[in-house]
Design a protein that fits this description.
Layout (H helix, E strand, L loop, with lengths): L3 E7 L6 H13 L4 E6 L2 H4 L8 H7 L5 H6 L5 H13 L3 E6 L2 H11 L3 E4 L7 H6 L6 E5 L5 H12 L4 E4 L2 E4 L2 H7 L3 E6 L14 H9 L2 E6 L5 H8 L4 E5 L17 H18 L14 H4 L2 E4 L14 E4 L10 H4 L17
Parallel strand pairs: 1-2, 1-10, 2-3, 3-4, 4-5, 5-8, 8-9, 9-10
Antiparallel strand pairs: 6-7, 11-12
Helix pairs in contact: 1-5, 11-12
């Protein structure tokens, strides 16, 4: 039941493998279970004239094309191979987002990474989704900008068959046998695609809606400021938390300002782990720490007034008082109308 916490390095390495290594070590020291990168080339991701997003212009203070920005943030295949080995050496999982068919082949077959992440922008990319039909790796599907219908269409394509159908704004599982096969393969992340996301748009209740309608593991990819949203997300059932990670919010690059620095990330991890402890088993039952307080806090059946031997017990001569080491008050109806075998003083525990 441990919540899987991902430090989203993304492009915060700024195309520098040494900075990427520092980020991996810092993420490990901050308590993350995994680091996540983004496997892309500018040539396969965007056209030469594609514009930057408004947040990218604001954060980089540069109005260059998206292509030029991304070109400076690329890593080579050999870098990913090296960083996966470096992550393994530092005992932290290495995962990555896919943006094209080639990255699916590279990450799934050559690097054999634990999870393939489908970023929000690729949820309508039929070519990439179709490519995932042939791989056995676990998949994390991020759902920023998507509605429920688009989410189930993406899952149906990945699964090759129509597991879900969508009618009258409701989701129905139409292939239960195949659904069981994907239940441990696909995790769906609630996400809102903006950087940073204003609190009023976080829509964290969607986590419960996704979990209940899809009957899959769900998680949360967070773009809000601070650490409150991930903590609310785990209380709503998120099994994966992904948060952008940087060494310094002041570094140049599009995502640093919407990322957590190590101290804040550590605090988030600390509170999530505390939540796991406090959340417990989910079964309402006597806790070990409560046992010592039962006799003190609960009551027993006692004599309300003097009771003579051979008197009949009744609601008039019985009452309940602490301590709770006598007869449980829930059994009083079984005692009423029985004959007393001895004298009882007021407040004396009844014994039969």
């Amino acid at each position: 039941n441990k919540i899987y916490i991902i430090a989203e390095i993304g492009v915060n390495h700024n195309g520098d493998i040494n900075l990427a290594k520092k980020l991996i070590i810092a993420a490990k020291n901050s308590g993350a279970d995994a680091v996540k990168f983004q496997n892309f080339t500018a040539d396969s991701l965007t056209t030469k004239n594609s514009k930057k997003a408004p947040y990218q212009i604001k954060n980089t203070k540069n109005n260059e094309t998206q292509y030029k920005m991304l070109k400076k943030l690329e890593l080579k295949k050999k870098d990913y191979i090296y960083l996966k080995k470096f992550s393994k050496k530092n005992k932290i999982d290495f995962i990555s987002s896919i943006f094209d068919e080639e990255s699916v082949n590279f990450l799934a077959k050559q690097l054999k990474i634990k999870y393939l992440k489908i970023p929000s922008g690729e949820i309508t990319n039929f070519l990439v989704l179709r490519k995932l039909q042939k791989i056995s790796n676990k998949i994390i599907l991020s759902t920023g900008m998507a509605n429920t219908k688009e989410i189930i269409e993406a899952i149906n394509i990945i699964s090759k068959k129509k597991i879900y159908k969508y009618q009258k704004r409701k989701v129905f599982i139409s292939n239960k046998k195949l659904h069981r096969k994907i239940k441990n393969k696909i995790t769906v992340l609630h996400c809102v695609t903006d950087y940073p996301v204003e609190d009023k748009y976080a829509n964290l209740s969607a986590i419960e809606q996704l979990r209940n309608s899809l009957n899959l593991n769900v998680g949360y990819s967070d773009h809000t400021k601070g650490i409150l949203a991930p903590l609310i997300a785990v209380s709503k059932g998120a099994k994966i938390i992904e948060k952008h990670f940087t060494l310094n919010n002041k570094l140049a690059g599009p995502d640093h300002k919407a990322s957590l620095e190590p101290n804040s990330f550590s605090k988030m991890v600390k509170y999530i782990r505390l939540f796991e402890i406090m959340n417990g088993s989910g079964n309402k039952e006597l806790q070990k720490c409560e046992r010592k307080n039962i006799d003190i806090a609960r009551k027993s059946i006692v004599a309300k007034k003097f009771i003579n031997k051979n008197d009949y017990f009744s609601f008039d001569n019985l009452t309940t008082k602490r301590p709770g080491n006598g007869i449980n008050p829930m059994k009083i109806k079984k005692i009423v109308n029985r004959k007393s075998k001895k004298n009882f003083q007021p407040d004396e525990l009844i014994k039969i």
